[in-house]
Amino acid sequence: MNLPELKNPHIFQKLGRVDAKSLESCDQLLLILTPKPAASHFKQLPSGDKMQRVLRKLPAGSTPTFTTRLSNVRQTLVVSGSIAKDASIFEQLTLGRKLVAEACGKNTGSLGICVIGFSADQSTSIYNCVIAAALAAAFQLPSFKSKKSKAPIKSLRLLGAAKRIDTSRVEAEAKGNNLARWLTTMPPNKMDAIAYSDLVRTLAKANDWSFKRYGTKELTQLGAGAFLAVAQGNDNDSAGILRLRYRPSVKTKNADLSLVGKGIIFDTGGTNLKPFQSMLDMHGDMQGSAVAVGTLLAISELQLPIAVDCWLAITENRTGPNAYKSQDVVTAVNGKTIQTVHTDAEGRMALADTLVLASRDKPAIIFDYATLTGSCVTAITAYYSGVFTNRADLHPHLKHTGRISGERVWPFPIGKEFMADLKSETADFLQCSPKAPGDHILAASFLAEFVENDTPWVHMDLSASDNDGGLGHVGSKFTGFGVRYTMSVILDDNLFKANL
Ligand SMILES: [Zn+2]
């Protein structure tokens, strides 16, 4: 199994007034206007009068607002959408996804993007959001059809911007997100735990990251009993914890940021077997690890001057004679003992040991990503992800970053008081509660017990990881939610910038 081609389509830019010749080079043109475009806006386009007449005949408020074909040689398909000047980033990304889907559902090739009627800043933001959507749609997810489909978008052409738009960030984020979605979509027999580790090793080599794999032997020596409890149900010795290191300068430096991800290759639920519908998409239960490694790729693509560790906890969660079961007591790397309750709460077991290892390397901050609990989806829907932290002061920053990145999150409380619901008679605590509500809060409070050295830590429960029809700029079911968010944490938030 080889890694996918992650190269984005080329982005051409033609600044200033849009002429007929540049329209001629587009198979489709996405035209983004204000909700009530003035006649002067249409005058900036060849055939603008015709477009204005088409628009007048249509009811307002639909997406696309209108489509038409130009009478040039290519018969360029114009797909227009409107958006308010104060629209949120999420709304801009969503508009991008819908317009790209409309334009590229038909013939594909060279996709033009033109934004008219906004201030310079608004226009740059809209261009970037629509590019993000186009780069997500241009990427081909794993396909095992005997007949290969062709690439949906060959190139992007930005038309009408006043000055050159720096697309390096949106392109790096697209690569990270595309990688995360590709890995998550892979069938679990095509990408088992061994194949996943091998792919990550290849990726590390290509990007000059250091790579270390802790196999079950080494993890046994370390005493990683929580992770190994999950792994013991595998029918082969495939489980492992991977550690990647990106060091742009001093190789020995402690990490400024440590990314940790849950990588359950397939989650059957284990001995407490899931029913059919709940198990169906459980090859996606490694999305947290895919988001962690996708984020590392985006950071590395931009050659950001920060030291980053990345830890991936990779195993299956299977049934079988050796699989762990309720009432087993296991000891984690940090010596804490866990009374197991439900084998389908395997994510927190795999992450517990991984968080100990990650925090022992004393990074400045840890972010972990996990498709962890159903209760987080119940609490906040699949349009947001939940965040939890041992630094409650970060709550406003975490929310703000969700708003400005368009990958929206909402914080929940954690803490010792919730551990009362995980009180055990035979071990330090229960793995989860057989009856208490708020499993997302209990799971995060449980994980906090495994963060050592009082390391600042943020846990993201990826309730927005799986959306039929897509979310924001991404049209696929698996969204890769978290890559764009974390890049915004690093690059946009002043608090984090000061720390890095
Ligand atoms: Zn599970």
Walkthrough of the structure:
The chain is α/β, with parallel strands linked by helices and 500 residues long. It has two domains: 10-166, Leucine Aminopeptidase, subunit E, domain 1, CATH 3.40.220; 173-499, Zn peptidases (Aminopeptidase, 3-Layer(aba) Sandwich). It is 35% helix and 19% strand. It has 17 helices and 17 strands. It has helices at 20-24, 39-42, 48-56, 89-104, 120-138, 168-185, 193-207, 216-222, 225-231, 276-279, 287-301, 346-360, 374-380, 395-405, 439-448, 483-491, 494-499, and strands spanning 10-14, 28-33, 66-69, 77-82, 109-115, 153-159, 210-214, 240-246, 257-267, 308-317, 329-331, 337-339, 366-370, 385-389, 409-411, 429-430, 457-461. Strands 7-8-10-9-13-17-14-15 form an eight-stranded mixed beta sheet, with helices on both faces. A six-stranded mixed beta sheet has the order 1-6-5-2-4-3, sandwiched between helices. Strands 11-12-16 form a three-stranded mixed beta sheet. The radius of gyration is 24 Å and the shape is elongated.
Instruction: Report the mean per-residue pLDDT as an integer.
Output: 95
List bound small molecules.
Answer: zinc ion
SS content category: alpha/beta
End-to-end Cα distance, whole Å, is 36 Å
A few lines on this structure:
This protein is α/β, with parallel strands linked by helices.
Topology diagram in text:
Elements: E1 10-14, H1 20-24, E2 28-33, H2 39-42, H3 48-56, E3 66-69, E4 77-82, H4 89-104, E5 109-115, H5 120-138, E6 153-159, H6 168-185, H7 193-207, E7 210-214, H8 216-222, H9 225-231, E8 240-246, E9 257-267, H10 276-279, H11 287-301, E10 308-317, E11 329-331, E12 337-339, H12 346-360, E13 366-370, H13 374-380, E14 385-389, H14 395-405, E15 409-411, E16 429-430, H15 439-448, E17 457-461, H16 483-491, H17 494-499
Parallel strand pairs: 1-6, 2-4, 2-5, 5-6, 9-10, 9-13, 12-16, 13-17, 14-15
Antiparallel strand pairs: 3-4, 7-8, 8-10, 11-12, 14-17
The protein binds zinc ion (ZN).
Zinc ion binds at residues 267, 269, 317, 344, 346-347.
